[in-house]
Specification:
Elements: H1 9-27, H2 31-52, H3 56-63, E1 73-82, E2 85-91, E3 96-97, E4 100-102, H4 109-121, E5 123-135, E6 148-160, E7 168-174, H5 189-200, E8 207-208
Parallel strand pairs: 1-6, 5-8
Antiparallel strand pairs: 1-2, 1-4, 2-3, 2-7, 5-6
Length: 209
Amino acid sequence: MEKKTQTSPWLDWAVELQALAQGGLHYSRDPFDRERFQRIRDIAAEMLAQKSGLSLETVKGLFCCETGYQTPKLDTRAAVFREGKILLVRENDGRWSLPGGWVDVNVSVLENTAKEVREEAGLEVVPRRLIAVQDREKHNRPVYAWKICKIFVLCDLAGGEFRPNSETTESGYFSRSELPPLAEEKNTEEQVRMCFEAHRAETWETLFD
């Protein structure tokens, strides 16, 4: 199921420079070395701003705001089924996605999965099976300037109903052959079909990149 997304060399260089600089700023105690690492970080941000068209301030806010050793961000996506159909939520731009989002620092992957379904769909679910852990840039576009691990979790529906919220406008259940337009930066048709396969399987071996 892996689909490698090609990235431009300059993006790979900028990401690596940023990671090296962030690590250097975390571990180095020499003030002159720290000054050099900060300049490397600034150059990486300038490269991204030049190529992306975003302001340098925006790039630094997205790309250079973390401290410590750089690690991937985590994103959870819940696969919830009812009568053989999968739950999707409609984003504010009209496209649809599996309920999910960034894993908050004070919750586990299991807790975050249930929380996102509650917030975006108004439903209570019980996460019960890990479907896949994917390297986002191998499956989704556009490629971002930071590494993301996407975690897909099969959940049992426990109750609830959709409630208006700031992130989604409605929810619905869809068959495998009648999927609506998807927010493919969050989940592709291939990823949704993977969730169907996990739901139908008597046993499932977790996929990972």
